[in-house]
Amino acid sequence: MQQHMQQQNQAGAAMAVAAKVGQVSIGSPWARATAPGAAVGGGFLMLENAGADDKLMGASSPVSAKVELHSMSMENNVMRMREVTAIDLPTGKRVELRPGGLHMMFIDLTAPLKAGESFPVKLRFEKAGEVEVTFKVESMGAMGGPAGSGMHQQGVPHGAAMPGSKN
Ligand SMILES: [Cu+2]
């Protein structure tokens, strides 16, 4: 009954699918190039979930000691980032990680991320399980296409304004 409710078109224009695990599709994974000596870098992608509600629980990559999931929002004219424990992936929706919004953060980079290179990241979903995707490194000013807003704090080291840092 009601199987037709599993519609696909709610997410709008088609996404270029880079990888798929279970009912979750991953599109356009990329990271921003980092300056020499930078400790952290940002990672972005699109997620489309055609199955039951799921969650992105975390990620790992050889490029950094750990990978965190962050949200970013403007509060009193100040861009604030905070770590989130998971990113909700409601059924039938597209969730976009992009500069100025939800993003992944590579903490304690082992080497700078250089434009033109790529690296593997393992994503962990609550229900769909794990999948490895390849992130492409784009230039430092990259906003991730026409949808990128101009709100990102250009030139400020990513992580400098991180509130509630534990160490
Ligand atoms: Cu961040």
From TrEMBL:
UniProt xrefs under PANTHER family: BLR7088 PROTEIN, COPPER CHAPERONE PCU(A)C
Domain of life: Bacteria
Sections of the chain in a coiled coil: none
Entries under Pfam families matching the protein: PCuAC
Region (Disordered): 146-167
Name this protein carries in UniProt: Copper chaperone PCu(A)C
InterPro entries on file: LpqE-like, Lxx211020-like, PCuAC_sf
